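Bug #77: duplicate submission created two jobs. Keeping one. Sequence:
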Amino acid sequence: MKDLVAKINAEFETFKTESESLLEKGVKAAGARARKSTLELEKLLKEFRKVSVEESKK
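Kept job's structure:
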């Protein structure tokens, strides 16, 4: 579970960096990287929900 939370935090930092680069500097490629990061975050958050529910049942 700790690994999963660490991955979520790392991916969020990537999203944050790329989205700031897009908004502040106008780097179009950063937009694509930020969108890719959101897809990865979605997968990780779904996994977190699954693991969290399993842990709560114990």
